[in-house]
Design brief:
Radius of gyration: 22 Å
Strand order of the largest sheet: 1-10-9-8-6
Shape: globular
Mean pLDDT: 83
Number of helices: 2
Largest sheet: 5 strands, antiparallel
Helix content: 10-25%
Structural class: alpha+beta
Low-confidence stretches: 1-6, 8-30
Distance between the termini: 49 Å
Number of strands: 10
Length: 165
């Protein structure tokens, strides 16, 4: 092989391209690492504002964990938030880019005993009412601890990452 010396203008051009690529890659990485991993117990019949991680304020809520009765329940997007089910996706492998390109809908997702779409292991994308993105994985469900009710899937345990603007 023969070594060649590049002219100074070609070296400058190559250096500029490499720096542009590194800078572009760094901003994406920075956005992704600024997101924090959390766990959440979404209580039955409660709403949740992902942007502030607050429960119960329906005017700013992104999601409502609706219970019709002991066997029928839904995860409902609120206040212009949207959901997408990410079938076959691994929670830890999802990037912000994956979330931005998800097929979002404003329809509720069933976790009812008959034909549940939402169950342990389900992975979701959320576009919040504030325009942020989140990835959510259903870790499991917890029963209602009450002597009057026998509801096994009352509370939903989630793992999530919120990507803020």
């Amino acid at each position: 092989m023969q070594n060649r010396i590049l002219s100074s203008s070609k070296v400058l051009t190559v250096t500029t391209v490499v720096l542009m690529l590194l800078t572009s890659s760094y901003s994406t990485t920075q956005q992704e690492t600024s997101a924090s991993f959390r766990e959440k117990l979404l209580k039955g019949t409660w709403t949740w504002d992902l942007d502030s991680n607050s429960d119960g304020a329906s005017d700013s809520a992104d999601l409502w964990w609706e219970h019709v009765d002991a066997h029928e329940r839904y995860l409902v997007p609120k206040n212009d938030a949207q959901l997408a089910i990410l079938k076959g996706k691994v929670f830890s492998n999802l990037s912000l880019r994956d979330l931005r390109t998800a097929d979002f809908e404003s329809t509720r997702i069933s976790a009812s005993d008959a034909n549940p779409v939402l169950d342990t292991g389900t992975v979701l994308a959320v576009r919040t009412s504030d325009g942020n993105y989140a990835k959510i994985e259903v870790i499991g469900f917890e029963p209602l601890k009450s002597s009057r009710h026998d509801t096994q899937k009352y509370h939903m345990r989630l793992r999530y990452v919120l990507y803020q603007k």
